[in-house]
Design goal:
alpha/beta, 169 residues, globular, 41% helix, 6-stranded mixed β-sheet, Maf protein
């Protein structure tokens, strides 16, 4: 079973829903989830906030935080996840932000990615990733990582950690 199917199964077991906020993945998280038959039972929708200003305007990410740290930041990822959860009326929110390349962004090197989960209780979880590979591999691994983070939270195995991985594993 792929990670999207596992997440949707875990959501269904709890009667919960999820919404996504995506930046570097540009809709790939939503595509992965909606590729699973029956996804509409657990997936509410997504916001692709690629432009930094939209992270504030659509998802409520703090404008000062964005100005001071840029969009590639763990707190930005958490606020994006919480914003998706709130704006789309879901039990859980997930988010991706980072640098897929080919050039660095906001002083961050290519492969720097933050994925986050915000749930019904608690402050949420964020994972800092240092991914290797080309743009496509970094984006694909970001999708897998955010779904895995949500799956771990749903199954009670959640923990945030820094990881270095090769894209496309």
């Amino acid at each position: 079973m792929n990670e999207a199917a596992r997440v949707l199964e875990l959501l269904a077991e709890r009667g919960h829903t999820v919404a996504a906020a995506e930046s570097l993945t540009g809709g790939l998280v939503a595509a992965e989830l909606t590729g699973v038959p029956g996804a509409s039972n657990g997936f509410r929708g997504s916001v692709t906030a690629y432009a930094t200003a939209l992270k504030h305007e659509l998802l409520g990410v703090d404008k000062t935080l964005l100005a001071e740290r840029g969009a590639v930041d763990p707190e930005v990822a958490l606020q994006m996840a919480a914003g998706a959860r709130r704006r789309l009326g879901a039990d859980w929110g997930i988010a991706t932000t980072g640098v897929a390349g080919p050039d660095p962004q906001d002083g961050q090197p290519v492969g720097t990615v933050y994925v986050a989960v915000a749930g019904p209780v608690g402050a949420g979880k964020v994972a800092a990733l240092r991914l290797n590979g080309g743009r496509a591999e970094i984006r694909r691994e970001s999708v897998r990582s955010v779904l895995e983070l949500l799956g771990d939270e749903l199954s009670g195995n959640g923990r945030a950690q820094d990881t270095e991985q090769n894209g496309g594993n």
